[in-house]
Write a structure and sequence with these properties.
Blueprint (H helix, E strand, L loop, with lengths): L1 E5 L3 H12 L3 E5 L11 E4 L2 E4 L5 E2 L2 H9 L14 E5 L1 E3 L5 H16 L13 H8 L2 H16 L8 H9 L11 E2 L5 H14 L4 E2 L14 E3 L3 H8 L4 H7 L4 E11 L10 E3 L10 E3 L1 H4 L7 E8 L11 H16 L7 E12 L3 H7 L8 E3 L9 H19 L1
Parallel strand pairs: 1-2, 1-10, 2-9, 6-12, 10-16
Antiparallel strand pairs: 3-4, 5-8, 6-7, 11-14, 11-15, 12-13, 13-14
Helix pairs in contact: 1-7, 1-13, 4-5, 8-9
Bound molecules: flavin-adenine dinucleotide.
The site of flavin-adenine dinucleotide has 36 residues, from helix 1, helix 8, strand 11 and strand 15.
Amino acid sequence: MKVTIVGAGFAGLTLAYQLLEQGIECEIIEKQNKVGGLIDTLPDENGMVETAANALMSDRNVENMFADLNLNFAERLPAAKKRYIFWEKPTRWPLTWSTSFKASKELFKAFVRGDEEAWPESGESIEEWATRLVNEEFCERLVSPALQGIYAGDIRKLSATLILKSMLKDRPPKGDFKGSVAPPGGMGELMDKLAGYLEQKGSPIQLKTAFTMPDYITNPLVIATSAWNAAEILKTAKPLIAQVLERCESLPLIRAVCFFQPTDDDLEGFGCLFPTKEKFNSLGVLFDNCVFAERSQVRAESWIIGGALNPSALTASDPEVIEAIVADRARVMGSHARPLTYQITRWQRALPHYTCAWEDALRDLKNEPPLYLHGNYLGQLGLSRILNRSVTLAAEIKANHG
Ligand SMILES: Cc1cc2nc3c(=O)[nH]c(=O)nc-3n(C[C@H](O)[C@H](O)[C@H](O)COP(=O)(O)OP(=O)(O)OC[C@H]3O[C@@H](n4cnc5c(N)ncnc54)[C@H](O)[C@@H]3O)c2cc1C
C-alpha cells in the first residue's frame, strides 16, 4: 500500500515521516517549486528571516523527530524568558492585584477542578467567556493580546471552546525540554531535512504538481493543505466535504523582519504583545535575536501585522509597512530608528479563523476513508500539535489499511 499526500507543508511532511515510522511508504504531491508551505527561512545580509513560524513547542515527538533528522536545537537565550504585554508601557504583568486574584481563582476552577460553570459554553466567544469568568480587564489586557498574538483573530468571534479545548485535548507526550525550539539554521532547515529524509527513505516528493482529485480512489489519500485549498480540490468529487471546508474563513497576515542598529534602549525578551485598546498598527513583535543565538549580528525583530481586525494592512506598500512599524516601535522603545534592512512576507490567506461558526462547521467534518484531511484548521494551529496529529493520523491509516 502507498499513501498519497497532497501538500508538502509541515502537516504533509510530518505525516509522511510518521507513516514511514509505521513502515508505510508515501508519495507527496506539492504544487509549489519548494517544500515547507508557509514555512521558509530566507537569508538577509543582517541575519535570518522567517516567513511564518520561527519555532515550535518542544515535546517528546519533536525531540524524537529532531534526533531522527540529526538536527540540533538552536541555543536558547536566557532573555527569551521575559515576555511583555503593552499596557501604557511594556509590562511583564498587565493585571491589577484584584483581577489577578480573581483570575487565578476562576482559572483554577476551570482548568484544575473542571467546574462546568467556569468552562465555556458551546458557541461562546473568547470575549464573552473571559469577561464572564473574570472581568473586562482580564479580557482586554491579557487574554485578548495573548490570543490575538497566536490566532490573529477577533476575540468577539474566536470560539472559546475550540481554543481552550485545543490547549487541553490531545496533548503531545512531554519531553526532556520545555518551551520553544528551532534548528540552528531556522525553520527552513527543519523542512529541508524532513524532505531529504523522506526522499532517502523512498517517499518521493513531486514538486510543481497541482493535484486534482480523481473520480475514484482505492489507496489512502490525505489532503494536507489549507482548508480553502482542500475545498477547491474536493469541490467536484466530494461536494459535501468541500461545502463544509468553504465555511473556513482565512486571515491575512504580514511578518516583517527588520534589522536595526542595536542600542541601549532595545527591550530584551521574547517579544511584546499589543492589546487592541492600545491601538497599535501591529499585533505584536518578536525580538528574534534575544530568543535563539546566532540569528543576527544586529538587532532583529519580527513585526506581525494584519489579522481579523486589520485586513486592509495587507494592501500597504513596503514603505507604509515600515512607517507603521517605526511608529509602533517608538511607543515601545522610545526610538525612531529606521531599519538597516528588512524583508516583508505578506500572506493573503495565512491562518484559519477559529470562530464559533467554524466550531459548528468542524462537527460536520469527518474523514471518509480512504480519504483523510490534515492541516492547521482541524482544531490545532501550532506546529507541535500538528505533529501530534500526524502521529495519530499515521496510526489510524495503518489500522485502517496496513
Ligand atoms: C506569520 C506566521 C507565524 C507563525 N508562527 C508560528 C510559530 O511560531 N509556531 C507555530 O507553531 N506555528 C506558527 N504559525 C503557524 C504554522 O506556521 C502553520 O500552522 C503551519 O505551517 C501550517 O502548515 P500546513 O502544512 O498545515 O499548511 P501549509 O504550510 O499551508 O502547507 C500546505 C501545502 O499544500 C500545498 N498545496 C495546496 N494545494 C495544493 C494542490 N492542489 N496540489 C498540491 N499541493 C497543494 C501548498 O502549496 C502548501 O505547500 C505561524 C503562521 C504564520 C502565518
